[in-house]
Amino acid sequence: MAMTLRLSDEQTEALRRRAEKEGRSVQQVVQAAVDEYIARHDADEEVRRLGVMAVDRWRPVLGRLGE
């Protein structure tokens, strides 16, 4: 999918410099950033889901420990 991304002049210049330092295109840097963002948020959601399951599973024990 093609899309337009509007960045400030400062963001555009910083992105161009980062891409140049890494020897990659701006597009490659942006795609990597999007991939990392999605992966990080997917992992955060999984940790929250597992935390809820653990609390539910161990609620009786946790309750007794709190007495």
From TrEMBL:
InterPro entries: CopG (IPR002145), Ribbon_hlx_hlx (IPR010985). Gene3D superfamilies: Nonribosomal peptide synthetase, condensation domain (3.30.559.30). Residues 4-40 form the Ribbon-helix-helix protein CopG domain. This is Ribbon-helix-helix protein, CopG family. Pfam families: RHH_1.
